[in-house]
TrEMBL record:
Cofactor: Zn(2+)
One Pfam family matching this protein: HTH_18
Lineage, broadest ranks: Bacteria, Bacillati, Bacillota, Bacilli, Bacillales
Gene3D superfamilies recorded: DNA Methylphosphotriester Repair Domain (3.40.10.10), Homeodomain-like (1.10.10.60)
Keyword set, alphabetical order: Activator, DNA damage, DNA repair, DNA-binding, Metal-binding, Methyltransferase, Transcription, Transcription regulation, Transferase, Zinc
Name listed for the protein in its UniProt record: AraC family transcriptional regulator
GO molecular function per UniProt: DNA-binding transcription factor activity; methyltransferase activity; sequence-specific DNA binding; zinc ion binding
Keyword Oxidoreductase: no
């Protein structure tokens, strides 16, 4: 059973030369014939989509939009492969998903706009309306939460904790952590150790 499913999947996966050309030429005549998804962004498009062509190795193709949806790909906001307007909530979910998975890499408003197929301005405004914080604030919250985890659960040095959450500028990492959490990363780690020791003593 499993082997059969794998076989079907690999058939759907294989991108033909013709399909690849249709994608890079934005060929509308292929729109009813297949859809393509980009593994790195989790978004799927019609062949005619004017978004920047992805790397060939990251593409998966599907015969129907439903197949792509079943595999948890999200419809592109620009070419609307499901034929409906993509609700803003869905669009913003695409962006937060991306941040949750890529917070350790450089993430800017421009990158988020690119991967979610919108303009930076529109993305910023819509994000703020739905999440009540800006995309940059969301990135910072995710990064600080991961940093707290690393500080309490690993022995990584402060600089490495910063790097692990995508903040290579160590002084800036420390400043932002203090501003958002109320302690420096080192203080936070020490407080946590003390708290743990008190906990152990009580047991
Ligand atoms: Zn598209």
């Amino acid at each position: 059973m499993v082997a059969q499913v794998d076989q079907v999947n690999s058939q759907i996966d294989s991108l033909s030369e013709q399909q690849w050309l249709a994608i890079i030429m934005n060929d509308k005549s292929y729109d009813s014939q297949f859809f393509y998804a980009v593994k790195t962004t989790g978004i799927f498009c019609r062949p005619s989509c004017r978004s920047r062509p992805p790397r060939r190795g990251n593409i998966r193709t599907f015969q129907t939009a439903d197949q792509a949806l079943t595999e948890n790909f999200r419809p592109c906001k620009r070419c609307k492969p499901t034929g409906q307007r993509l609700p803003d909530i869905e669009w913003i979910a695409t962006v937060t998903d991306y941040i949750d998975r890529n917070y350790m890499k450089p993430v800017t408003l421009e990158i988020l706009a690119e991967i979610s197929h919108g303009s930076p301005y529109h993305l910023h405004r819509t994000f703020k309306r739905i999440k009540e914080i800006t995309p940059v604030e969301y990135i910072q919250i995710i990064r600080m939460n991961k940093a707290r985890e690393l500080l309490t659960q690993t022995d990584l040095g402060i600089v490495d904790v910063g790097i692990s959450v995508g903040m290579h500028n160590s002084p800036y990492f420390i400043t932002l952590f203090k501003k958002m959490i109320g302690f420096t990363p080192l203080q936070y780690r020490q407080l946590n150790i003390k708290r743990k020791q008190r906990g152990d003593a009580a047991e």
